[in-house]
Write a structure and sequence with these properties.
heterodimer, A: alpha/beta, Rossmann fold, Arc Repressor Mutant, subunit A, 5-stranded parallel sheet, globular, B: Rossmann fold, 3-stranded antiparallel sheet, 23 helices, 8 strands, disordered N terminus, ORC3 (chain A), ORC3_N (chain A), DNA-binding (chain A), ORC_WH_C (chain A)
Chain lengths: ~725, ~525
């Protein structure tokens, strides 16, 4: 009965379009002492009154506080055995890691557009006078590429920048094709936003007030008066997705701007996904003649993505490593679905959220010193011992004969805690080496692969210059370099060692002994090579190494009108040999600087690596068709009921009506006779079957099922034959 | 032909489950064409079939067989054999059958009539013949598995010719086709084989009956506990959802079943356990997208009143929120993919709202095609996380008008006034000449229906020309001017008891959204 009351209370609200949800009293359960209530709450005013009246008796306040606490905290893992402080620690770690990264990404994105913005603003500011002479409308064509999701950010930035520079005089109006259907609508928008966007300016009768007179709300005169009152300035109208606009509308608007050019200074901007040529081909010639344009290119999405990955995924600021598998998947999705960078950032954020929210071991990510031993409880240690990397580490120790170490790890909790505390330092060390290797590999400029590919490969397989063929197969390229190239290479490598790579936030090798030794070594090498160049110059020979290509190729020489083919076996001079030795030396030393293990080899890498596809895929790229099909074809998967257990994807009478109809539907042809459908349905559930439902009840369920099928878009009305419906989905 | 109906229904009950093991529709007409002598073979049987009361049958066993086989299933299937010739044959057959019956009833046979009768009989038998064959063949196919078994047929019969000249036969549709192949297979012209059964024998549900029965049924749902358990699983992920909302993602819950209750519980949860970033002054607005009367203005108004923003425009609300950083708003939107919210402007407004940092959105969707609602710009604004939230809950009456929806699907249109009674009710309140006009209209439509031939089922609406009706109305002094005529029609339009449309030539046509039986009933009521 209580349930019925609840639903009837719902219904009042359910028929409303929108309503404010007022918090139900927490004591509902007490007053309405029915434990079977499926719906705990009853909204609406009467409930509220009740709350006030019972405040003194039921004393719900402590409960409320406790609940609040619960809401603010993350659920405890290990089946609730996790200590609150550990859960809190995870939360704090998340809250301290992600925002850093987020601001980093934001600045990368802002930087990416900065140059374009500068150019556009420059154009709008400078060319005005020139254009005025010709009486044309200045137009900026901004090539944004096919990703319209990125346009929003660009144009909002543009608006901000213009507002900043224009000192409040200029106006920036953004038009989107979806919002502007016709000329009047467009003008209304321009006038309204041009006048400062105050809705209050327009009266009930749709007129604008300006300078004591009233204008129609699509009259540009109103805007002119307003602009004059403000002391001039420009109105910049941006067509955000120009291709989506009706060409005629663009023409008409531009024509109007042109004819008003002597009174209001209009400039237009077009966001173009394809190319200016294609866009111009769509415009009328008269329209094109009224425009005076310049073209601006936005940094392409791929480049932006790469810099985001460098900063936020690979860089030192990233606490959590996105595993190679997931990263590959994310990047591929970026390319295949033309999703904006925003989608990538969201995925990244979700990975962080997932890791800290659902992985109890993420608490171990805190720096070693801070990781209080109290936090670590026996469940943590047990979980650590279940890790794949733990197992392989122990096995490795046994193989190496370090039996004590393995035994202690398995049995001694304190020993394990010590190890766990040390892994933070190890992680830093590993990351340092990884980034150093990557930075150096990039510095050689010999790798043909993009940074993302290199990074993925490094995590996946480790970095090893010997591996050939492989992503880090640089040996040949380095050895074949000419003396000048080698010097350039050495210089670049030294810069990287000293200064690091700013886009990775890697600060170089610092001032340790290693760094000094490396610098000294490279200095010496450079001096050697420079000296060799000098000497060979004096001798007027060209310096080469035995690896350089010239020594191997065939030479064709024309001697006395005869072509001679000769293998160039020019013997290497003393300097050449010295240079070869220098190259070998360089490469050997370079190899010591570059190289790292695959990520998965590291002890406890699960603590700081996230490489799970599953939640990501479901959450960002849902497959609703498959989900619906599964729910309908195998309800047992969801309901776990005893009655439909044996169905196993086939059709039995106990299934929900919609599910039975779905089964029949998937067997039916393109056109379905409802009479037959009903007959078949009734044969399954009707009086002659095991279910034994009477006809009218079966019909009610049949109706419900059919209505649901329709709401889900499976069927529609068909006029071909009486009582027939048409199939709409082939799954 | 009432006796055949019963066999029909039995067959119909079988049809959808069994793969249609029927014959190729195309072979029969050709047989007729090629081998007219064969018709003679069943002459006696056919005659016996039609008027067995008068003519003695030489082969009784044969007769039984023809009755036992579900003749009509294939024989009278207009879609099976879409050739025009065949349809012509059909109606010729019908006419001849009538002629035969008439002749027998009247009992008078003159010489020329006898001759006519012979022709009629011949036409009738020729089609009887083909039905016979189909029936036979179906029997055979029923015995042997539904594979092509032309060899089973009597040797030496015209099989050879037909197998070579007919299109390739496929009694069973190929199994396990990928969806797109299946689409093309099922949409092949001439392949839709559905029976001619209609729901006319079934008393459709009225709203009252539906509601009274559904209330009992929902409490007796055998899956009730399982559904509750499923819901409890969803409830257990509320903390996660709240966390995701607080991280400025929007949620989109999809999957089969009504999610209205989940949303409601989630609202309760959010109000009692607000996540940190949702401030203390978090306002929760629930929007029912399934409500047909939803408008953008109303939506914005309720949002504005929730945050107590002075303006009700979108930019106004957003700037108000920006200036009041402590106010946060959670929008819980039921059925974001409902037909009433599918306009692009709606979605872009919701997405703009959702993209504001202080607005949190959680919406549900009931159809699997929701992803098509959003282009990439709108989608980026939403920042959706999708969760499978299959509930198996049935939809409440507020969410889904089951009876209306089904009747609309069937083309019954009971959303208008309830059939005969409704019309009577409407007409009672109208002046006398309106009644006469409606009577005229019904009569005309029924006449047109008769004239059209009996082949039309209820699926097709019979239309009459506007001009013709007007002329008749003037003749009968129902109205004197077109103006008055229009006014009367307008009244009918308002009550949705007539519909009008224009045909390809631009002629205005009027039609009545009722079945033939209903029309007859209405006419009866009006004339008495």
């Amino acid at each position: 009965m209580a349930e019925f009351d609840d639903t009837s209370l719902f219904q009042e609200d359910d028929h409303r379009v929108a309503y404010m949800f007022t918090a139900p009293p927490i004591t509902t359960a007490a007053t309405n002492a029915s434990p079977t209530t499926t719906t705990k709450s009853a909204p609406g005013r009467p409930a509220k009154r009740r709350r006030v009246s019972e405040k003194d008796t039921a004393a719900p306040l402590p409960a409320q506080e406790k609940d609040d606490d619960e809401g603010r905290q993350w659920p405890r893992l290990f089946n609730g055995l996790e200590s609150p402080s550990a859960a809190d620690l995870r939360k704090k770690t998340y809250e301290s890691t992600w925002p850093v990264l987020e601001s980093e990404i934001e600045s990368v994105l802002r930087d990416a557009n900065r140059q374009t913005l500068e150019e556009v603003v420059e154009f709008l500011n400078s060319d005005v006078h020139e254009c005025e002479g010709r009486g044309r409308v200045p137009a900026g064509f901004i090539i944004t590429g096919p990703n319209i999701a990125g346009q929003d950010l660009l144009f909002s930035q543009l608006g901000d920048v213009l507002a900043e520079r224009g000192e409040g005089r200029g106006r920036f109006v953004r038009l989107r094709a979806g919002e502007v259907g016709n000329l009047k609508g467009g003008l209304k928008r321009i006038v309204r936003e041009g006048m400062g966007g105050q809705e209050g300016g327009g009266g009930e009768d749709g007129r604008m007030r300006g300078g004591g007179r009233r204008y129609l709300d699509y009259d540009l005169e109103a805007l002119r008066v307003e602009m004059e009152g403000r002391g001039g300035g420009r109105v910049v109208v941006a067509f955000q997705d120009s291709e989506a606009f009706d060409t005629g509308l663009v023409g008409e608007l531009v024509g109007l701007f042109h004819s008003w050019q002597d009174r209001i200074q209009f400039s237009v901007l077009f966001g173009i996904a394809t190319s200016v040529e294609l866009f111009q081909a769509r415009l009328l010639k008269t329209t094109a003649r009224q425009l005076y344009g310049a073209q601006f290119d936005v940094v392409q999405a791929n480049a932006v993505l790469e810099s985001v990955i460098m900063a936020a995924v690979a860089g030192t600021k990233a606490q959590l490593r996105i595993g190679p598998g997931l990263l590959r998947k994310l990047v591929r999705r970026q390319q295949e679905q033309v999703a904006g960078v925003g989608a990538f950032v969201s995925s990244l954020k979700y990975a962080y959220m997932n890791h800290f929210y659902a992985n109890p071991l993420s608490a171990l990510l805190v720096d070693g010193q801070k990781l209080d031993k109290e936090i670590l409880q026996s469940e943590h240690l047990e979980a650590v011992r279940m890790l794949e990397s733990f197992k392989s580490h122990v096995e490795q120790s046994v193989e190496d004969g370090r039996l004590d170490h393995a035994r202690l790890l398995l049995e001694n909790d304190d020993y394990l805690k010590g190890r766990i505390n040390r892994q933070a330092a190890k992680r830093q060390q590993y990351l340092g080496k990884l980034l150093q290797s990557l930075a150096l590999v990039i510095a050689t400029e010999h790798s043909k692969r993009s940074f993302v590919e290199l990074y993925e490969a490094a995590l996946d397989e480790g970095i090893s210059l010997d591996q050939s063929p492989g992503p880090f197969d640089l040996g040949d390229a380095i050895k074949r370099s000419t003396p000048e190239e080698l010097i350039g290479l050495i210089k670049r490598v030294m810069t990287v060692i000293v200064d690091g790579n700013p886009s990775l936030h890697w600060n170089g090798m610092g001032i340790g002994q290693d760094a000094e030794a490396a610098i000294d070594k490279f200095e010496a090498l450079r001096a050697d090579v420079e000296r060799l160049i000098e000497t060979s110059k004096k001798k007027k020979t060209s310096l080469k190494s035995k690896y350089s290509s010239q020594s191997r190729v065939l030479r064709t020489t024309v001697v006395a009108q005869k072509v001679q083919l000769s293998r160039d076996t020019a013997t290497l001079t003393e300097e050449d040999n010295a240079f070869t030795a220098a190259i070998d030396d360089f490469f050997a030393f370079f190899k010591t600087l570059v190289g790292c293990e695959p990520l998965s080899n590291l002890f406890l890498n699960e603590v700081w690596q996230y490489d799970y596809h599953l939640p990501y895929e479901d959450v960002f790229v849902p497959r609703p068709g498959a989900t619906f099909a599964r729910a309908l074809s195998r309800p047992h998967d969801y309901l776990g009921c005893a009655c439909c257990d044996k169905a196993n994807g086939s059709m039995v009478g106990t299934l929900p009506a919609t599910s039975i109809l779905y089964h029949l539907y998937s067997e039916a042809g393109a056109s379905i006779n409802v009479a037959d459908l009903w007959a078949a349905y009734y044969a399954l559930v009707g009086e002659d079957s095991e279910i034994g439902m009477d006809e009218r009840s079966a019909l009610v369920l049949f109706y419900q099922g059919l209505a649901e099928m329709r709401a889900m878009g499976f069927v529609k009305q068909s006029k071909k034959k009486a009582d027939h419906i048409a199939k709409l989905k082939w799954l | 032909m009432p006796p055949k109906k019963t066999t029909n229904q039995k067959a119909a009950a079988r049809v959808p489950r069994k793969r249609p093991a029927t014959t190729d529709p195309y072979e029969i007409p050709e047989e007729d064409e090629i081998e007219p002598p064969k018709r003679r073979r069943h002459a006696a049987t056919a005659a016996a079939d039609t008027d067995d009361a008068t003519v003695s049958t030489p082969s009784a066993s044969r007769l039984k067989k023809t009755v036992a086989t579900p003749i009509k299933l294939n024989g009278l299937n207009g879609i099976d054999t879409p050739s025009r010739k065949n349809n012509a044959d059909r109606s010729a057959r019908r006419k001849s059958a009538r002629a035969l019956v008439d002749r027998v009833i009247s009992g008078a046979i003159s010489d020329d009539e006898a001759e006519e009768g012979d022709i009629a009989r011949e036409i009738y038998e020729s089609s009887e013949d083909e039905e016979d064959e189909e029936g036979e063949e179906e029997n055979l196919n029923g015995e042997t598995e539904p594979t092509t078994t032309p060899s089973k047929f009597a040797p030496g019969r015209k099989r050879k010719t037909t197998t070579t000249r007919t299109r390739k036969r496929s009694p069973t549709p190929p199994r396990n086709l990928p969806p797109h192949e299946q689409y093309f297979f099922q949409n092949k012209p001439g392949l839709s084989k559905t029976s001619n059964n209609t729901l006319s024998s079934l008393q459709l549900l009225t709203h009252d009956e539906y509601f009274s029965l559904s209330r009992d049924l929902s409490s007796a749902n055998p899956h009730k506990t399982d559904i509750t358990h499923l819901a409890s699983l969803h409830v257990s992920s509320f903390p996660q959802w709240a966390f995701e909302l607080s991280q400025s993602f929007s949620l989109c819950l999809y999957g089969y079943g009504s999610k209205r209750q989940i949303i409601h519980k989630f609202a309760t949860y959010l109000s009692s356990h607000p996540p940190c970033s949702l401030g203390q002054a978090n306002k929760i607005v629930i929007i029912n997208g399934y409500n047909p009367s939803i408008t953008i203005r109303e939506l914005l108004c309720s949002v504005a009143s929730a945050v107590s923003s002075p303006t009700t425009t979108l930019p106004g609300i957003l700037s108000y929120l920006t200036t009041h950083p402590k106010t946060t708003l959670t929008i819980l939107l039921n059925s974001v993919s409902s037909p009433y919210l599918r306009k692009g402007s709606f979605q872009s407004i919701i997405s703009t709202l959702a993209s504001h940092a202080q607005v949190y959105l959680c919406c549900t969707t009931d159809s699997p095609d929701f992803a098509l609602l959003w282009d990439s710009a709108v989608g980026t604004n939403f920042r959706f996380l999708y969760h499978d939230c299959t509930t198996f809950c049935s939809y409440s009456p507020s969410e889904m008008e089951v009876v209306d929806s089904v009747h609309e699907l069937l083309g019954r249109k009971s959303r208008r006034v309830g059939g005969k009674e409704g019309v009577a009710f409407v007409l009672r309140s109208l002046p006398e000449n309106a009644k006469s006009l409606f009577r005229l209209l019904v009569g005309e439509v029924l006449c047109a229906d008769e004239g059209d031939g009996q082949g039309q089922g209820q699926g097709e609406e019979i239309s009459v020309e506007y001009r013709m009706v007007y002329n008749k109305a003037v003749e009968e002094f129902i109205c004197s001017s077109e103006m008055a005529f229009r006014t009367l029609l307008k009244e009918f339009h308002d009550h949705q008891i007539i519909t009008s449309h224009k045909d390809a030539l631009g002629t205005e046509l009027l039609s009545l959204p009722f079945g033939k039986e209903e029309l007859e009933g209405i006419l009866e009521e009006l004339t008495t």
